[in-house]
Amino acid sequence: MLSTQQQNFRTARADSRLVPQISVDTELLAGYSQTAGAQFTYRAEEEIYGEAEPAEFVYKVVSGAVRSYKLLADGRRQIGAFHLPGDLFGLEASDTHQLTAEAVVETKVVLLKRRSLEVLAAQDVQVAYKLWTAAAENLRCAEQRMLLLGRKTALERVASFLVEMDDRCGAKGMIDLPMSRRDVADYLGLTLETVSRAISQMRSTGMLRLANARHVELNRGKLLNAMDA
Amino acid sequence: MLSTQQQNFRTARADSRLVPQISVDTELLAGYSQTAGAQFTYRAEEEIYGEAEPAEFVYKVVSGAVRSYKLLADGRRQIGAFHLPGDLFGLEASDTHQLTAEAVVETKVVLLKRRSLEVLAAQDVQVAYKLWTAAAENLRCAEQRMLLLGRKTALERVASFLVEMDDRCGAKGMIDLPMSRRDVADYLGLTLETVSRAISQMRSTGMLRLANARHVELNRGKLLNAMDA
DNA sequence: CGACGGATTGATCGTGCTCAAATCATGTGG
DNA sequence: CCACATGATTTGAGCACGATCAATCCGTCG
């Protein structure tokens, strides 16, 4: 089911303003190791939790990739975030999850009981403070995405996405996308055909090259011009 | 310059899942009263702070309305949130603001030094915890808006907006919009003409009535059907 | 090799945007 | 009080970007 390229998507996270899930790891995982350090592996396409389910755990991606999304009644889907190795997700303040989370490819995560995290936060100001900055960082990414979804053209959206992924992955200019064109489309508020056409157009204008559909080599200079803020 | 209807927009906040800025008031303002309780009034259209400016203060709306937005280089604007009486805004974890904030109409705010809030949070777990839930609540609203911006039709967006405003205002089913059609459009990722047409269509199908352009009476039942999730 | 799912490309359609004009509301000065 | 100016809103006409429907193309795996 899994291509090797998909399985190999586990590069180190680079520092970036665009990274949606934050690395509060230090403090959080100090407490984390005391409480519940279960590692778990989800198969590709497997659901991790559903929207409106009780938020029992917080997750940290070890390897693989996760998509968090919302659905409308008729099946329209908006992916709110992709979670890559190093990212935390499922960290709600409310007691139920706000989005559904699924493994995009085979994905290893470590689990932390939300309850114990809250206890920790109630005792340790450092942890509580980190929870705040984590949420605030996610909020900043969401604000950036609102600008993209509300006001950018298809080409700008795809360019922004590729640059974001490049920033979040290891080798600069070389991206192994773990997700399908449909996932990208649902992340950017487009259709998969429009995403494909945008990528083809970028290829023809030398903004990028494709080793295959999932492996992209960026010409960041040209791409950033097409991107706007 | 200001219509009386605009000045009168200061209804009490109702409890709602859609409210973007949260009421952490209790704890925060306990600390707040110790530190800096300056009240300030901004004229309509006046800038409160600019994107990328140092985030020196946190604000709480007393009366009026505030818009927070981002711009692209060519002037396209995405309003990330409207802040109504009772809402906090400008509460960043980073040391610079991520959006520009402007008074929509004449607006009274109370100011709190961000620095003193951080000091407070470092001492008091309750405050730090409240900061987290505040940011997380904002994040939840942002996730909801991403679904709207990425996947809803014009009609659904306007319907969702009106219901949101209704939930956030006092008298149910009666809304006094403080903002122009252009502001609404930039909040919903549409043009002002499309917003106007959507409202006209809703009027003709009995979903709402207009006393004037800014005063809307909703038929929530019919409206909610047109809205989807 | 053939089958399958994902991606690309093509042709056409439609929602929402653009450009433009008419209408309405509010405020000003005669 | 009314005529007029101004700005916001509504409405109209035509267009364009991205969606939809459909046909290959390609890579992977049986």
Notable traits:
Jelly Rolls, 4-stranded antiparallel beta sheet, 229 residues, 8 helices, elongated, disordered N terminus, Arc Repressor Mutant, subunit A, homodimer, alpha+beta, DNA-binding
CATH superfamily of the largest domain in chain A: Jelly Rolls
Largest interface: A-B, 46 and 46 residues
Beta-strand portion of chain A reads 15-25%
Distance between the termini of chain A: 38 Å
Shape of chain A: elongated
Largest sheet of chain A: 4 strands, antiparallel
The portion of residues assigned to helices of chain A is: 40-55%
CATH topology of the largest domain in chain A: Jelly Rolls
Low-pLDDT ranges of chain A: 1-27, 30-34
Report the oligomer.
Answer: homodimer
Residue-averaged pLDDT of chain A: 87
The second-level CATH architecture of the largest domain in chain A is Sandwich
Tell me the structural class of chain A: alpha+beta
Report strand order across the widest sheet of chain A: 1-8-3-6
Task: Give the SSE map.
Two copies of one chain form a homodimer.
Chain A: H1 4-7, H2 25-35, E1 39-42, E2 47-49, E3 57-63, E4 66-71, E5 77-83, E6 88-89, E7 100-103, E8 107-113, H3 114-123, H4 125-151, H5 154-168, E9 174-176, H6 181-188, H7 192-204, E10 208-212, E11 215-218, H8 220-227
Antiparallel strand pairs in A: 1-8, 2-7, 3-6, 3-8, 4-5, 4-7, 9-11, 10-11
Chain A binds a DNA duplex (30 and 30 nucleotides) through residues 3, 153-154, 180-182, 190-194, 196-197, 199-200, 212-213.
